[in-house]
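Why does residue order matter? Because the sequence determines the fold. Keep that principle in mind as you read this record.
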Amino acid sequence: MWFKSYRKRQNAAHVKRMICAMYIRPQTFGWLAAGITVTIWTSFIVIARASATLNLNPLDIVFVRIVGAGVVLLPWMLISNRYKAQTERSFFGLSPLPWKTTVITGVLGSVLFASLAYSGFFFAPAAHASVLLPGGLPLWTAVLAVTILKEHVSRSRGIGLACILCGGLLVGGESLLQAFDGGHVWKGDLLFMCASFCYSTYGIVVRSKGLDPINATVGLTVFSVMTFLPIYGVLAWTGLVASNLATAPISEMAFQALFQGGLSVVVAGISFNVMIRTFGPIRTTMLTALVPGLSALGAVVFLGEPLFLNLILGLALVTTGILIGARKA
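Structure:
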């Protein structure tokens, strides 16, 4: 009897140790999500700029992106629809979010962000996007978090935001001056900043409503599939908007659907929302410190883009600002 009791206690202790070993802290998930997000965002900037030299126009890429995300998430939508209460859902039960929340997240985090960002790559180089897309996120998020969520911006984050602002001015200011000579790069810079504002607002909505990462991604995808796809499809088919969907190679569209839809929307969308729930909106957008430098370096290596002095200084300031702001208060 004593031996059996001893063995039972030993087995219970072993099971407990196994459970503890399998347990992963939320902070660990947050850092893992940060690594995934940084990797995909860096690739996104380089690939999106390269796509501007191919066949699809900006809205074509948005269309294929949404198709890819819908194909990946369709099984999740159908399966989860069988196990969740219908009253919690909208858009014919496909979205796990209320109707209003689905519309807001879909417009900001999908349709507007993608349309503005991809359009920007047709005017400005990837190095500009490296500074203004990830660099603009902390600026807009800080403003929105203070005004909407009433969050406090610490002194170190204030210094970091000042560095980011100066870095953005070094890059965007030079483009604005070129506008008087007939340049078009400033249009891309402006589009990048607007895209950054949309995604920052989307992050604030996710944080303020405490949305589940997967549900938020599914909700915005459902909205995009049920609104943008049919509207743009009809406009492109009737010739009311310029589109190359009918003539672009299948291989190009398949790659864009896989990367822009499967990875950029689904995987990076979920990992970004995990970061928001773990670190909060301000620190989340400042944890992307590696994106500007890595994507600018990728543009030099893979796209042959030059790095001028103002871009180097802007990258240095933005990266420094993000690193300073990412420190705990």
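The first helix runs from residue 2 to 22.
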